[in-house]
Amino acid sequence: MSRPPTPDPYAQVNPQKARTGLSRIWHAAGYSVAGLKAAWREKAFRQEVLAAVVMLPAAAWLARDWREWALLAAPVVLVLVVELLNSAVEAAIDRFGPQWHELSKNAKDMGSAAVLLSILLCAAVWGAALYERFA
Fold this sequence. Notes:
With 135 residues, the protein is mainly α. Helices cover 80% and strands 0% of the residues. The longest helix has 33 residues, at 102-134.
């Protein structure tokens, strides 16, 4: 005898959990676009998008094949991804209020450090590629 499926308790709170197939994909894409719009209000994200708009076509010019292009493009996109995650951490922390707390500071500082490391990785990869190409 088989047991009936257990209902998802989150489906009552979040209608996205009850969606399946193309409906779920469509709505998830809408949430992603909303996230990008929210991120656009962040000055750092806008600056990094501007850099990406310059660097991704430059990667196509600099690279000799698709593998080199991918190796140049990946850290650029990684910077954007890490900035989005950092902004999400900051928004979640700020939701609880503006009061100072050591754990909130640590979370925000670690998010900022992650952005810094992704930018340093991007600079190192691009620096090596430019050196190899022009030196």
